[in-house]
Structure formats: structure tokens, C-alpha cells
Design goal:
This protein has 15 helices and no strands. It is mainly α. It has one domain: ADP-ribosylglycohydrolase fold (Orthogonal Bundle), CATH 1.10.4080.10. It is globular, with a radius of gyration of 18 Å.
Length: 323
């Protein structure tokens, strides 16, 4: 059984790999993917090893959480300030309330424009931090879900994940799936099996107002995985992944379909109609946390962009004392 350090490294590297695999085929229909890359679609990082805004924002989430822990200030506000730093890398605009040197800003790769989500950009450009009590918009897009993996090592990961997502996504369908992912990853971090962790999250969502669509999407993912016919048309039954609960459901379905096979789970998660980089990133987070870094092909672990930075932040997260 992998240790917590291996799980966290696997989680963040796995997310980056899934992101990089899906990034070249985001927006493509499955028929076009198969036509361009062959019937099996994208298989590895040979098409591109570049991360998208999904992994960029995941790392800025980690930076914000670690800074908040160090200073003893609000974790959510610290993440917001870190997101303003990410916004600067994509827009070259400095918003009040953040410092614009050091940390991740020392890495030139973050200044590459990787098709950042319009909701994240518009929310951060407003100069207002969205909260659960005061939503900034009514967006249920998956841009809040794909970046919350670092929340898994903090107490009450569900609430923290929701709050972090609500900075930019104000609809319950945008932030509740983020909390659900953070809670699921936390259960895996502590060694729970994937089926049990998913069932527990589904049950816990029953106590959360506004969680019905996320709960139903996860139930659908479980049911389809139990049918045992993993393929792109089945993925399509869950949606295309543009909204939060669909992206989470596709990732969970892919992981449940290949719970011991990291590469196959990611291939299922990215080769479909829709938001392939986000579904790949979320599935990679899940599979990496479940199986640990050792289950990821070494050429993928060492080949994805910014792999050393990702490892360093994962190690720091894994050393946070557990209550």
C-alpha cells in the first residue's frame, strides 16, 4: 500500500498527466480524435506533455494553502491571493491584494497562456472574492473542480474545496462537486478503497443542500462502471464534462472502470466528446491518490511539464500534520 507521500505525489503528478493528455483534444469530438490519432485515441504524452490552466491553478491552490498555513491567516483568502498571482501570469494585469514576485512566479512556464477559463479570468478580474454566502456569479462550470486536489490534506476537505471553488464559481453545481472531489481524495489519502470512498461521498452529499445533481451524477457513474463496458459512448452518457458534476462523474467512472490501471483509466477519461483536459486531470488526481506515484509510468512522471515543481509541492503538502 502506498504511503501518504507517494499518494500525494501521485495525485498531483497524475492530475498534471491527465491534463496534458487531454489538453490537445479538448473541444474535439471523439470521432475526430479517433480519426486523427487512431481508434484508440490519445495514449500517452507523445502528443504533448504541456499542462493547461487546470494544473497551473492546482499549483496556485497549493501555494495559497501552504502560505495560509504558514501565516495562520484564512486559507481561502490566501488561495484567492494566490489566484490573483496566477491571473497576472495570464493577463499581465496586477490586482490589488497580492504580491507579484517569488514562489511559483519564478517559473517562466506559468506565463505561457494555456487557454485559461473565461469564468476564472472574469471572476478574478473583478477584484471581488466570491464566497459561499456571497456568490460572484451563477457558474456551474468545472473550472472550480479541476484545481482543488491540494485541499485533500486539510481538515474538512469538503468545505474547504467548496470555498476554494466558490472564489470563481458561484453555483452549487460549480462548487459542490469540488468539495466532493476534495472529500473523495482525502478518503483515498487515508487508505480507503475507491468504491467505499465514492459511496461514502454519495451518502454524505445527502446532507448537503443543493447537492442533488452532484449526488445523482456520481450514482450514475457508479452504475455505469458496474455494467462493465468502458468506452467513449458510455462516457457520453454522463455528459461532456463542461459542468462540475459531469466532469467529476466522468473522472470517477473512468477510475472505477480501471481501478488498478492508471494508464487505462486516464485514456478513458480523455478520449471522449468534451472537456478532456479537465476530466483527465480529475481522473489523474483520483488514480494517483489511490495507487501512489509508483503506479504511474516513469516516462510520464518524468516527462510532464513542471514535474519537479509538482513533486516539490506534493511533498510539502504530504508533510502537513494531520489532526
Amino acid at each position: 500500500m502506498p504511503g501518504r507521500k507517494s499518494r500525494m505525489i501521485g495525485c498531483l503528478l497524475g492530475g498534471a498527466i491527465g491534463d496534458a493528455m487531454g489538453y490537445p483534444v479538448e473541444f474535439m469530438r471523439y470521432s475526430d480524435i479517433a480519426r486523427r490519432f487512431g481508434g484508440a485515441g490519445v495514449r500517452d504524452l507523445s502528443v504533448s506533455n504541456l499542462i493547461s490552466d487546470d494544473t497551473q491553478m492546482t499549483l496556485f491552490t497549493a501555494e495559497g494553502l501552504l502560505n495560509g498555513l504558514k501565516t495562520g491567516k484564512s486559507l481561502t483568502k490566501s488561495v484567492y491571493r494566490s489566484y490573483l498571482r496566477w491571473y497576472y501570469t495570464q493577463s499581465k494585469s496586477k490586482m490589488p491584494g497580492a504580491k507579484y514576485e517569488g514562489g511559483l512566479l519564478n517559473e517562466a512556464e506559468f506565463f505561457a497562456n494555456r487557454a485559461p477559463g473565461s469564468t476564472c479570468l472574469s471572476s478574478l478580474s473583478s477584484g471581488i472574492m466570491g464566497t459561499l454566502a456571497d456568490p460572484i456569479n451563477n457558474s456551474r462550470g468545472c473550472g472550480g473542480v479541476m484545481r482543488v486536489a491540494p485541499c485533500a490534506v486539510f481538515p474538512d476537505a469538503f468545505t474547504l474545496g467548496c470555498r476554494v471553488a466558490a472564489i470563481t464559481h458561484g453555483h452549487p453545481g460549480g462548487y459542490i462537486p469540488a468539495g466532493a472531489l476534495a472529500a473523495l481524495l482525502q478518503k483515498l489519502y487515508y487508505g480507503q478503497s475507491l468504491p467505499d470512498a465514492v459511496e461514502d461521498v454519495i451518502a454524505e452529499l445527502g446532507e448537503v443542500e443543493g447537492a442533488e445533481s452532484t449526488q445523482e451524477a456520481l450514482r450514475h457513474a457508479v452504475a455505469l462502471a458496474e455494467e462493465g463496458r468502458p468506452c467513449a459512448p458510455t462516457v457520453h452518457e454522463l455528459g461532456e464534462g463542461w459542468v462540475g458534476e459531469e466532469a467529476l462523474a466522468i473522472a470517477v467512472y473512468s477510475a472505477l472502470s480501471f481501478p488498478t490501471d492508471f494508464p487505462q483509466a486516464l485514456r478513458l477519461a480523455v478520449n471522449h466528446d468534451g472537456d478532456s483536459d479537465s476530466t483527465g486531470a480529475i481522473c489523474g488526481n483520483i488514480m494517483g491518490m489511490l495507487l501512489g506515484a509508483g503506479a504511474i509510468p516513469v516516462e510520464w512522471r518524468d516527462g510532464v511539464e513542471l514535474c519537479n515543481v509538482i513533486r516539490a509541492y506534493a511533498v510539502r503538502l504530504s508533510t502537513i500534520p494531520q489532526e
